[in-house]
Amino acid sequence: MGVDVGGTFTDAVLVENGRPVGVAKVPSTPDDPSRAIAAAIDQIRTGQDARTLLVHSTTVATNAILARTGARCGVITTRGFRDVVEMGRRDRPHIYGFAGAHRPIVARRDRIEVGERLAYDGTVVEALDLDEVRDAGRQLLSAGVAAVAVCFLHSDVNPCHERQAIAALREFWPEPRYVTGSADLYAEAGEFVRFATAAANGYLQPVVSAYLGRLVGRLSDLGHAGPVLVMQSSGGVASIEQTRDLAIGVARSGPVAGVVAAAEIGRRAGLSNIVTCDIGGTSADVSVVVDGRPRYVNDASLGFRLPLVMSTLDVVAVGAGGGSIARVDELGVLTVGPDSAGADPGPACYGQGGTAPTVTDAALLLGHIDPDARFGTGRQSRLDPDLAAAAVRSVAEPLGIPVPVAARGILAVATTTMANAIRSVLTARGHDPREFTLVSFGGGGGLHACALLRETGMRAALVPRHPGLVSALGCAVADLRYESSRSWPAAAADLDDVATAAALHRMLDEQEAALRERLSEQPGIAVDDVEIVVEGDLRYRGQSHHLRVPLDRPIDRAGVEKRYRQAYERRYGRTLADAVVEIVTLRSTLVAHHGDADLSGPVAGAGRGPRADGGAGGVRHRGDLAPGERLVGPLLLVADDATVHLEAGYVAEVDAEFNLLIREGA
User: Fold this and answer.
1) Which parts of the sequence belong to the Hydantoinase A/oxoprolinase domain (predicted)?
2) Terminal CA-CA length for the chain
């Protein structure tokens, strides 16, 4: 069973023998997401599934970081480095001026220095004072700190002092797993990102652990005794216990499940270059897949000057979803988002007490949503255009324009925000939009597909058979995925030395052994095959930024230089033939396939809507469509999980997988 927890709705899909056989869509419960998960599971459980494998995504960690509602965390660090987590890096996220306010997640009073020092090469300059460590730990405990991160300088090269400190603290810390060492999370150079990641993990651990405890309790009440896995930011899944230890690993869990499923849908449709666009109730999440491979980054952001230095799928999120609220700002400009009406009260047209104008209200007023469709509400009642009109009037009147014009403006602003996100993953990174297909999904994916094609210059959009269920299906098909990385600063030419090359391969062997040990800790999960992927963070000498490049074993100088020069030319359109190629970091990733799901065809339980009127400008149900059929806009294509608005001037073809392939044409 795959369960996707969104800001507005929680979706669940039950898969048996590779086929989706049941679906549920319920309002999310932001105060405790486990309640919505339990409600969704209760709707589709068969009575035979007490041992069903449950995989779910969560926004608990993301919300805790953004809203600063994590646990009180302390930091014990090398004397003189108390303020590293606050100083940040010398970068500017916006070209013009400064934007954002840095709010450290660990207060200065909870950062304590102790005596110890390692040199850059890991040799001990000053021995660790364990008495100081214990005193610091007891001081933090007495102050009410729940978790502590041990962050020593150069521990990425030699973690001996961190491990001694961790052992001493765990002797008396109430929950030993809440003592974290920075090198155990991120064994790479750069003290700021390493310290910040360790602090963020400690900040999130008690919150994530408490949430997972509530979830396990609710599942137990439902009689579910099967294993539970959690979607990771890397696009893989991990167990409850592993997630409790590495809470930072789910900091971007929410958006990645959809990317995993969309990449698979694109592959089955014969598309290797795609842009995924998941339009939900709260946000639009955009990612890029090139040559069938989703793009990974090692240094994403969780907020202003708060890096996430864990391997994660590269997803750009913007506050433009179905529930995004429109308003006229103090300058008289129409804006949309980033705040959302969410699940409660939801858009005004849902009739649940909402009065703020949202993107969904605007779409309903303009006829992009059938009022009789049960799109996204999980309710049988009709959507109310009068309530939507009253809400949109609150922005129309200040602008002095009719309500329909205001509704078109709301959709135009939302579309532009989404299109800017798409441009950020394409043109800003050297890709031609005309060479990519938009895979648009989520509850609002089909509503905006035509407009996004027009806005971005992309030539085709694919809307999956069940766009509103894609992220839940992504949870069901995600692989087990573990990664280990280590700094390895060297020039590619150093690999000509036999001893250096042998040491590198020994380190990779150690990484692989540790990853396989982690896999063995997964209880009750049968895997079909295991793959070890080796990659390097490479750069030209003198550069500060690197590219993540796949490498083939055995690793040698020629292979490293060839792979990097090819990657550099693809990214920047040129190469530096005489520049020295350097290795910054080597990383090994274990990918274990544990199941499969057919993402094509109808999902049992995704029933037929109340209307099925054909003809131009009419309404058709997607369940009536057959492969090979050609549709001409304007037309609404309705289903229980989402609506597709095929605009005038666009055509859609139903492919063999029941996807809609939309292009401009007559």
Assistant:
1) 194-483
2) 41
